Amino acid sequence: MEGKSTALIRKVKAQGHFTAGGAGPGARRATFAEGRAGPGFDFLPADSFMSSPALPLIDLRSDTVTRPTPAMLAAMFGAPVGDDVYEEDPTVARLEAATAARFGLEAGLFCPSGTMTNQIAIKAHTEPLSEVICEQTAHVYLWEVGGIAFHSGASVALLPGERGRLTAAQVAAAVRPANVHYPTTRLVCLENTHNRGGGSCYAWDDLVAIAGVARRHGLPLHLDGARVFNALVATGQRAEAYGTLFDSISVCLSKGLGAPVGSVLLGSAAFVQKCKRLRKAFGGGWRQAGYLAAAGLYALEHHVDRLADDHARAARLAGALARQPYVAEVLAPETNLVIFRLHDDCPAGDFLARLGALGIKASGFGPQWVRFVTHLDVDDAGVARVEAALLSAGG
User: Fold this and answer.
1) Calpha distance 363→369 (Å, rounded)
2) CA-based angle 67:36:27, to the nearest 5?
3) pLDDT tier, 1 (very low <50, low <70, confident <90, very high otherwise)
4) What pTM was estimated for this model as a whole?
5) 70-302 in CATH: which number?
6) How far apart are CA 325 and CA 322, in angstroms?
7) Which CATH number fits the domain 306-395, given the four candidates 1.20.120.790, 3.90.1150.10, 3.40.1390.10, 3.40.50.2300?
8) Fewer CB within 10 A of the end CB, N or C, for the chain?
9) Are strands 337-342 and 360-361 parallel, antiparallel or unpaired?
10) Residue 199 falls in which region: left (phi positive, over 0), alpha (psi -120 to 50) or beta
């Protein structure tokens, strides 16, 4: 004998409310087109609906989990390609030029990952026995496998930021005086938005002040812009103005922009030419990469402005979390990341397991801390499902 939930789902399918796999939120009716939920169910109990195996997964672990849209796939399969190691792929060249122009810089280098673009940039700017200034929870230091030491033989001056943001005074104080006992300060790295800071953004005046310190000391300034478009959309800052401040910028295409893979390293023509040799040494030279570059071009043309929707949904989730008695603290979201702390009587592992049983994935972010990330594949219906799940996820 089939269970109550299975019978209800079969009833829904028989009535034609499923057209492309999965269902919408809670206790409302849903219609699907291309896998995206429409208005909700009005005859299914929320609990039985949310526990159904027919529900699509809601993945809040990262904005890297998105899949190409049908239109992006069409652009990829229609792309003209060539051998990029021979500099003969026209789509790669177009992506590199378009990204550089957007940020007011001369040239770009398409690479497989943001870790590679960051580490290539750091190696190009430094030499062994030199030092990189960055915030203590910066991605280039904390989440890139010790790459600064491994690839560049450089030391790191770690500074405590406010939600990942440094001040010009901190950077100035961290520059080493000339002394045979010290490494030589060679580079300043910023991250905008800042992952560990909950998607926090730099104010423009603060970026200008830090760039001024770097210039006075003759130091290049690198931006880890894994989510730089989130920062631009949230603050209204202009991408082309960034080229007046930063000597190099790593722009990720596979997070909020929804491309399947790839980042572009930007800088002067001479800098990028140097980095191209380093990319080859890193094993990052690739051949018909235009299929992937086409996804990046499509993302730049179609997926930037919509990041505001992700930010609004993150704010909505933060509000829902703040209403839960088992949530001790929620960092106010500035973009698409929501970081929150659970009370000790609600173990984070149990909380994540309960969400998982309801078809929702999220990431632990330290003892009792959890991260939600909104993105292209989480729509309003998905947020409604998460809101409903939070009512019982505390145990």
Assistant:
1) 9
2) 135
3) very low
4) 0.86
5) 3.40.640.10
6) 8
7) 3.90.1150.10
8) N
9) unpaired
10) left
